Amino acid sequence: MDSVGPNIDAIHEPFQRSERSPEDEMISSYLRNRSEVYGDLVKVQDDGWKNPEAEAFFRGQRHRADNATQKIRKVFYKMMRNIGAELNAASDGALELRNSNPWVLDLCMAPGGYTAAVLDRNRDASVCALTLPQHLGGHRIIHPKDTGLQVMFEDITMLYKEFGLTDIPQDHPNLLKFSDKRWWYGKEFDLIFCDGQALRTHEPNIGVYGRQVEALRLNVSQLILAMQRMKRGGTLIMLLHHMDSYETIKILRVFDEIARIQLFKPLLSHMNRSSFYLIAKNVEPGHLEAVVAVNEWKKVWKDLTFPVLDEDGQALPPKIASEPEVVGEVSDLLDTLGERIIELGEPIWQIQKEALATANWTRRKEAMDSEQDGTVEASAAAIAVHASEEDLDNVGDADDMETAPVLGKASKPPAEGPVDSADMSVAMQSLDIDS
To answer: Ribosomal RNA methyltransferase FtsJ domain spans which residues (predicted)?
Structure first.
């Protein structure tokens, strides 16, 4: 559930054709009828789904992600650090914290590139981080030398007291994996990252929850903890997927009410996939809409974490609303927010559409006699990312620590120098960071 790494198969594939919910189908139909950009993206996705080269490419990407080397992780650490710089430039300095001695919380931190991007700009910042332990499938932490971090190794989805419960049923199959910790309880943070993803390497520990619900459990877990630690007027940055999904739009609706939001899709990565970042500034955690949302997220977490089991021990889906209720809820949402979603979404869809339309498999399909090497993502990243081998070596590993002291000296900004293009090409295809 760390911020970089392999994802559960098919949940966020760019050419996903898994069964969509009735809510998502309604939203997609609405958007196709009103946004030419979205309609064009859907057509490109359909073409990709039919192309065996595209399917083979992403299958290979998943395989390499599960077997990534430490060298590739270092390359990605630097790339994420530079994505942080790109995000900061695109958001009028979201990472440049105005007050002295700011506090930052990085949820699902590993490998640590976004923390480093914050420290590059805030030498007096104190950083706390929560990340999945390696023995549960998490990634190793890379951090600048001579800095301190307060890092806790936990599965964020198992912090039951944080989510409103007082105890766990003794017969729960994952009883021993729950934690009663409430990290940094009472502390308020100026900036919070929610950058977690459901990892394939974490799958053996999912237990009764199932592949299709783990991503939602992770999202609501991050949101609950973040909103219960957010300083009034602070900033939240969250990785999201699929702007045409009901669950994503509900999150955007909440933050559009309680904060000043913008969406960001980096050009160093994420281009050919559905992923993007929500940047919410001036967050009001005490706003009625925020309080209602946190309570709803707690209910979702509880329903997904304690499912009703059938006679074979398989989790039954949570009770869902009737079709008329679903239609009414989605219709109301689109009536009030539909145009806003198109306004926010079209720049994101345009980037993804262009990346998919010019991907290797598309070019080969259109011109079989013109072989192209690499991908749009790899070539863009190789041009844009500056992380010399010397600078990559100037990092240390902290994966064997249980905690570290509160942050002291901040890291130096990354040294200039091009990444080896072969390393970057391998890295871009090896860690499925945003799928």
So the answer is: 100-282
Please, how many CA atoms are within 13 Å of residue 266, restricted to the half-sphere of its CB?
25
Q: Torsion over CA of 100, 108, 414 and 418, rounded to 10 degrees?
A: -150
| Chain-centroid distance, C-alpha 323 | 30
**Short-list 101, 294, 105, CA closest to 189:** 105
Instruction: Locate 366 and state its tokens.
Output: 């259109």
The partner residues of 193 in beta bridges, in order of sequence, read 106, 237
CB 313 within 8 A of CB 286: no
Tokens of 127: 């950083």
As a whole number of Å, the CA-based R_g of the chain is 21
Question: Please, what sign has the CA dihedral across residues 256, 262, 267, 268?
Answer: negative
Chain segment 278-325, per-residue pLDDT in tens: 999 999 999 999 999 999 999 999 988 887 767 776 666 665 555 667
Q: Where are the alpha helices (DSSP H) in 358-386?
A: 360-366, 376-384
- Running DSSP on this structure, what letter comes out for residue 309? B
Q: Which residues contact 259 (CB under 8 A, 6 or more apart)?
A: 236, 280, 281, 282, 283, 284
Q: Are strands 150-153 and 126-131 parallel, antiparallel or unpaired?
A: parallel
Number of H helices, E strands in the chain: 13, 9
Between CA 55 and CA 43 the distance in angstroms is 16
> Per this entry, what is the length of the chain?
435
Pairing of strands 142-144, 395-397: antiparallel
Name the band, by pLDDT with cuts 50, 70 and 90, for residue 397: very low
Q: At which residue do the structure tokens 């219709």 appear? A: 331
User: Is 48 within 8 Å of 15 (Cβ atoms)?
Assistant: yes
Q: Give the CB-side neighbour count of residue 376, counting CA atoms within 13 A.
A: 20
